[in-house]
Structure formats: structure tokens, C-alpha cells
Amino acid sequence: MIPFVKAHACGNDFLVVEETLAHDKHAEIARKLCARNTSVGADGVEFLERRDDGSYFLRLFNADGSEAELSGNGTRCVAAWLAYSEGLKQVTLGTHGGPRACTTVSCEDTSFLIETGMGVPQVHPQAVQVEGVGAVEGANVNVGNPHFVIFVDTDDFSSHGLAWQALGEKICFHPDFPKQTNVEFVRVLAPGHIAFRIYERGVGPTTSSGTGTCASSTAAIALRDCSTTLEATAEGGTQRVIWPTPADEMRLTGPAEIICVGKVSL
Ligand SMILES: N[C@@H](CCC[C@H](N)C(=O)O)C(=O)O
Q: Do 127 and 82 share a domain, yes or no?
């Protein structure tokens, strides 16, 4: 049995496991522990390394065992755990997508509101030729991990005659993205408010995504003239983004809640 912490951010749930317990079996552990019917269940596992110089580093493994550069929501879940268990209200967490500085804005017992510096996003328009569907116009956005953002104007986020989950899967696994990609379907509700759905790489449809919030907001600000302070609502809740200019770091504020701590068999 190994100790774990479970936390979620707008329903996007993560397990936090100490890196020292992984013994190079990260992928296997993630697949096993994320299984919803036979283990604790989660969208991913954040392996937390505590380095000798006092710094922290996170390795994120998706539910399917693939390694991602980072997670916005997962990073915030770890920051919430460090704030709760060790009183760290400001902490920088290294990731393969770059360092992410997290600040606790407010907290009540196990519920936290955290602002994270999410790096400087990169965005460019891209069209993907999907078999049986045709050209799908969107935006390629990198916020430390890869995203493809599609603007829609349908109430149910469907696009090109397909449910967003079905088109999301086709694009996630499209050969134009050899490492696969996260896919967001974005509706502009007002200059300062977007709604989106996410088909997450390594997971499938999820209720929220921190990097997905940033990617959707990046595309909406850069390509749809949205406000540089933007609210982004997914099925699991709303997060806020601030991106003053394209050269600035994007800042993301959202909730994270610790659910439980326990021990799980491997
Ligand atoms: N599955 C993603 C990483 C996780 C994203 C996460 N939900 C978030 O909050 O950012 C990937 O493979 O890039």
C-alpha cells in the first residue's frame, strides 16, 4: 500500500503521490490508481519530487499512463495540498512545461482559491483535414502542453455535424499531432466570458482543465478580440484568466479542493 492524496479542481481530479514511491513505475502506477472501478480513480497522477535544494518538481501522468508536460488544475491541486499540509501559501512547482508559481488567494478548511503563473502562451491558426469531415479550422495553442482550439456557435458545442466528444477524439489522435493534443470547443458568450468543453489527451472528455482554460482564453483573446481579463466556464466551473499583452505571462485563478488522504494497494 502507498499513501496518496486526492484533490480536484472543478471536477478534474488528481492523485498526489511522492516521487520517491514511484521507482520508475510512473505509467503503471497512474494506470492502476486512476481506474475508477478498481482503484481510487482520477484523471491523472502528480508525482511530487522534493529536491535537496528545497525546490519541488512535478511529473504528471495521465490516466492512460502517458506523461504530459504539465496540468494547470493538477498543479493547483498540489499547491493546495502543500498549503494545507505545510502552510506553504506561495510555492513554485517545476514541471516539464516550465516552472509554475502558485499563490493561495484564499482558503477555507480544505477548499482553496489559487492563482498560478502559467507562462507565455503561443498561438497560431491551423486547419486540420479530418477524414470524412473535411477541413476543421482552429488554433494551435501551446501553454506548456499542446492544445487545438475550435470556435463553435452551437448550444451543445457540436461542430461539423459531430458531437464535441466525437470530433475531439478524431482530432486528439489525428496524425498532424504525433504526440496527440488536447482539444477545446469554445463559445464566446461575451467579450469577457467564454464557455468551453474539453477532450483531454490521455483521458478523454473531462469537466475542466487549467491548461485548457488558458488555451481557450489565449485563442479567444488573440483571435476573437476578447477581453484580456476573461472568465472561462467549463462543465465543472469557472476559472479566471488575465493576459495583459501577448508578451506577458498568463495568470490563472481557480479553485482546488482536497478530497481525502489514504493508502492504496499497487
Ligand atoms: N491531459 C493533459 C494534461 C492535463 C491537463 C489538465 N487537465 C489541466 O488542468 O491542465 C495533457 O496530456 O496535456
A: no
**Number of helical H runs and strand E runs in the chain:** 4, 17
206: CA distance to ligand 1 center in Å?
Answer: 10
- pTM above threshold 0.90: yes
Could you tell me which residues are annotated as the binding site? Answer: 12, 62, 72-73, 145, 182, 200-201, 210-211
pLDDT of residue 139: 98
72 ligand 1 Cβ < 6 A: yes
List pLDDT tens digits, range 160-195: 999 999 999 999 999 999 999 999 999 999 999 999
Can you give the CATH number for the domain in which 57 is found? 3.10.310.10
